[in-house]
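Form 7-S
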Amino acid sequence: MAMMGLFFVAAVAIVANTTRLVIYSRQEEVEIMRLVGASESFIKAPFYIEGLLQGLAGAIAGIAVLFVVFTALAARVEQSTLSGMIALRFLSLEQLVVITLVSMLAGCLGCYVSLKEFMKI
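Output:
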């Protein structure tokens, strides 16, 4: 649980820093949007969507790497003498969905932290 918490905080920090860089690169656009009367939620929405997509991409990449490693290790176990004693199976669909949703939450939370600092919510 402690390692999960540490990885979650690290993911939030990485997304927050990435979002902060994106905000700085689009600072002129944000100021123009404010000048023409765009609401704060209209300005923030693209950043939240980007945070969700970063979380989704991270989850897909992580699960893909995990599957490749699992497949390689499962093939070695099947060739060994332990093949009859150990039944290996990959993560269930529910676990994959939870991992993906938590990753997207981390992306959204990182975006929130960054926007809170930049836009003074």
